[in-house]
Design goal:
By secondary structure, this protein is α/β, with parallel strands linked by helices. Helices cover 37% and strands 25% of the residues. The protein is built from 13 helices and 18 strands. The strands form 3 sheets. Strands 1, 2, 8, 9, 10, 11, 17 and 18 form an 8-stranded mixed beta sheet that branches. Strands 6-5-13-14-15-12-16 form a 7-stranded mixed beta sheet, with helices on both faces. It starts with a strand and ends with a helix. The relative contact order is 0.15.
Length: 397
């Protein structure tokens, strides 16, 4: 059977460009397909990455807008401050970063084709384009986002949280009075837990020069979310809205397939997203590393059955962590605003700011949850009337 490429990648975002780079570096003939004229735009990401990024991908200095070393965690009436001595996260220019990764892939041999994909034939490796062109490849990799055409073609369910965000200019003094803190305003992210938007949350991310990304994800539609953000701004700041963005955050579903015939999914297309925070870029970069190994083996051995090993390996690494995060999410979803205030007061009373600062991690919550369980803190911080429900969620005996 004749093929035009070893691998066709649908989607030229950071995930598609990264898997393309890995495959090209290992001698595969790769095409990246995307309908967008400007890759990365419009912005559909909070644009903050933990320090683990350097273990998983390049992050050039020129795309870093700010570094942060902690967070202020808010309920309606309480604030916790968790922090490290060194930077723990990097606020980035996502559009510039997407461009960097695509250019890196092209420089290493990937062919970029600026066309819309309208259909795929996973059994025969055929990709159909809107200009009536067809491309045959040994593998087709879906990095085409939350509304993935490839995922739909595999019969997967696609459930998402709406997400909204604004780029806002706020005077530095406004932020300091809002936090009631003397800390450097650019060193911290703010997150708000509010019953109306659970299981999501609201964030305030500092960029530079008094600019902030303020957004949220929740079960509400974009129109309601914009009202929530606007009400939040009105109640706390004097501000200027510069831009508005909206998008969707996939909800991970372990029943969905990651591989079928010659099709393989990575990133939002595979709903590879942290349940608690909605972040998924670092997980997707790790999935690129895992998938590339098996794609290279499958192409080299002319055996697409090897692709299934990617799905097994990903689940082995991430399924337990995702399950922990779903349990945390379900627990928070039980809480009213008064319960959240109670939770935060008990966290402070039990010296949990220090514990969260020591064991907390943007990318994995299982370590912190295990530490809370080991120290018997879970039932010291949860309202008594919710004990039975929390026991059922976590499966305590």
């Amino acid at each position: 059977m004749n093929f035009d490429f070893d691998a066709v990648i649908v989607g030229a975002g950071p995930v598609g460009s990264t898997i393309a780079y890995y495959l090209c570096r290992n001698g595969l003939n790769v095409a990246i397909l995307d309908k967008k004229k400007q890759i990365g735009y419009p912005l559909q990401c909070a644009g903050i990455l933990s320090g683990h990024i350097f273990d998983l991908n390049e992050l050039p200095d020129e795309v870093v807008l700010n570094t942060v070393r902690g967070a202020f965690l808010h309920t309606q009436n309480h604030i916790l401050n968790v922090k490290k001595d060194e930077p723990v996260a990097y606020v980035i220019d996502r559009i510039a970063y997407d461009g960097f990764l695509l250019n890196r892939a092209i420089e290493n041999g990937a062919e970029f084709i600026n066309q819309k994909v309208i259909e795929v034939d996973g059994e025969n490796g055929i990709t159909f384009l809107s200009n009536n062109q067809t491309i045959k490849s040994k593998v087709i990799i879906g990095c085409d986002g939350y509304n993935s055409l490839l995922s739909k073609s595999m019969g997967n369910s696609q459930n998402n949280f709406p997400a909204s965000q604004m780029l806002v200019k706020i005077d530095e003094d406004n932020i300091n009075s809002f936090r009631n803190s003397g800390e450097n305003v650019d060193d911290y992210v703010d997150t708000y837990l509010l019953n109306d938007i659970l299981p999501g949350f609201l964030w305030v991310i500092p960029l530079k020069d008094d600019y902030y990304r303020i957004g949220l994800f929740s079960n509400q539609n974009h129109k309601i979310q914009n009202h929530v953000i606007k009400d939040f701004l009105d109640a706390n700041f004097e501000y200027e809205i510069i831009e508005k963005y909206k998008g969707f955050i996939p909800i991970f579903d372990d029943k969905n397939k990651l591989v079928e015939n010659r099709l393989l999914l990575i990133g939002d297309a595979a709903s590879q997203v942290k349940p608690t925070s909605g972040g998924g870029l670092l997980i997707a970069f790790d999935a690129c590393r895992i998938a590339s190994k098996f794609v290279i083996e499958a192409v080299g051995n002319d055996d697409i059955g090897i692709l299934k090993e990617y799905e097994k390996k990903f689940r082995k690494i991430y399924l337990k962590e995702f399950n922990y995060q779903f349990k945390v999410q379900k627990t928070l979803d039980l809480l009213s605003d008064e319960d959240l205030d109670y939770l935060f007061s008990k966290l402070r009373e039990n010296d949990c700011e220090r514990l969260i600062s020591e064991y907390g991690d943007m990318d994995t919550q299982s370590g912190l949850v295990k530490e809370f369980i080991k120290r018997g803190l879970i039932f010291k911080i949860i309202p008594t009337f919710l004990f039975k429900k929390v026991i059922n969620i976590f499966g305590f005996r």
